[in-house]
Amino acid sequence: MQDAPTHQQLLAAVALLLEDELEPALAAAHPRLAERARLAARICRIVMRESAGEEAQDAGELTRLSVLFPDDPAPYPATRDARRNRITMLTERMVLRLKNGEVREGERSYLARHVKETLLTRLAVNDPSFDLAAEIEATTTSGTKGESDPR
Amino acid sequence: MPPAPGATIDTEAARTAQLAGRIGQRLAALPDAPVHATVRDIRRLGHGAHSTFPDSWKVTLAVGDGKDAATEELVLRGDAGPSLPGTLDRAEEYAVVLAATAAGVKTPVPRWLLRGLTREGASSYFVPYIEGEPRAERVVLAAEFAEARETLPVELAREAAKIHAVTATSPERPTSFPGLNASEPDCDAAAASLAWLRGVLDGLSARRPAIELAFDWLVRTRPPIGPVVMVHGDFRVGNLLVAPDVPGAPGRLLAILGWDFAHWGAPEEDLAWLCLRSFRFGQLARPVGGIGQREPFYRAYSEASGRAVDPSRVHWWEVLGNCRWAVAGVLRAERLLQRGVVDVEIAAMGRRTAEIEWEALRLIDLATDFGGNGPLSWRRRG
Description:
The complex is a heterodimer of chains A (151) and B (382).
Chain A: H1 7-27, H2 31-67, H3 80-99, H4 105-126
Chain B: H1 5-28, E1 37-45, E2 55-63, E3 70-78, H2 90-102, E4 111-115, E5 123-128, H3 136-141, H4 146-164, H5 189-203, H6 209-220, E6 229-231, E7 240-243, E8 252-256, E9 263-265, H7 267-274, H8 294-305, H9 311-338, H10 344-350, H11 353-365
Antiparallel strand pairs in B: 1-2, 2-3, 3-5, 4-5, 6-9, 7-8
């Protein structure tokens, strides 16, 4: 265990330097470098959010995935790397099932919910300001029924 | 050990100087090039050192002798490193741009297709340099394009109609597109795009479940075969040159650039691509490139092309477009990271994929009126 400052504090120091000092100082004369400083600060913030919540996120993703594979019970992996390896392995199996048309009707909506839930956790880390609304345009797209209605 | 920064710059400067010399020699040997042309200035354009986009330079030529010499500004575009599957090389692109200019599309007429000028074995060609704003963010957001934004969507609809007037039977048409054979009667643009997407997805090192779900929906709801035309393939505000508003004259479209993804495809593909959320720069309520509404844009396209726009087809292509944009970004980031390129722009871009994947699934959720069956609960057809 290291002495203070923590990961969060170290990264916050770099992010503040980039956002509050470098970006404004570069904005007029070096706009491209200012933009790169802004991106670098954004990356610091991503890493801060990710490291704060990754254990809970990995656990959630793994638990949701495991429901799709009841015939493959396994003890909860003890280490972070082992959890991630299992997430990767189960995700590959899930995608393979989808590709091979082996997803049962009842499973499909669960699978879709899992994928959306996982995307939400990614977005919360990578861009918490992303607009999650279902309707984002002023005009609606309804009233234009397509020719491939399955009902 | 990495080279010292100075060494990199010197090598680049020396290469550019050699290129300038070669341009003079090669043009001197061409029957349709100016007789006494020398390179007065040459500067690299584009997207930075890690670009996988075509090599491009702005070249200022001095034409004629001594005091009477006139200057001519051109852009030289050459093949770069490996790019996305289906991307055209410069020789193929030259043929596309020729066909587009023959169809009256606003894009500069290409000149002097040459091999081995920019790199060994690489094709390259010149186009006249046009002064205009290439940055989409400025066109979408900046005050000096406010009037331009009023007319740009209709201008773009008309330009799209001209591009889409080029078909497999046009006298002036590109002959060597990779992939789809547009002269076959059962040629299916949607199926070809799905095959492309499948190929790229299978080549990625990590699985993308959201895109796989969207792919599954796209396969189930594939639209019936429609007309196959020349499509730009990257039709967005970021590939335009636009003149800003000046007192008494609203800004306007100067040129459509970025033809390296042109192919035989469905007209809706370009219309949908322009509407991708990623290209709206936060102006979500202006779906047409962040500058306009769908209905007037579709209407202007219908009037100019004589082809009705079916919004359900555009919607399908918009889902596909988001998938294509997402996998293109992932593939590019994967290749650069594998080559050991570490850079804030590439790193930040890699973490934006979830936004594009979300958008694809959001559009599918909206598709109840387009043949879906409610939020992410679509069923197999038939």
